[in-house]
Amino acid sequence: MADLRELFDSATCVLFDFDGPICRLFAGYPAENVAADLLKQLRQQGKGGLLSPQEAASGDPHAVLRSLARINPRSAYLVGLEAGLTEHELLATDTAEPTPYADELICALQAREYGLAITTNNSASVASRYLTARGLVDFFGPHIHGRTQDLLRLKPDPDCLLRALDSTGVPASRALMIGDTPADCEAARKAGVTFVGYARNERKRKALLGAGADESGVVSSLGPVLDTVVGA
Question: Reduced to 3 states, what is the DSSP secondary structure of residue 232?
Answer without folding.
Answer: coil
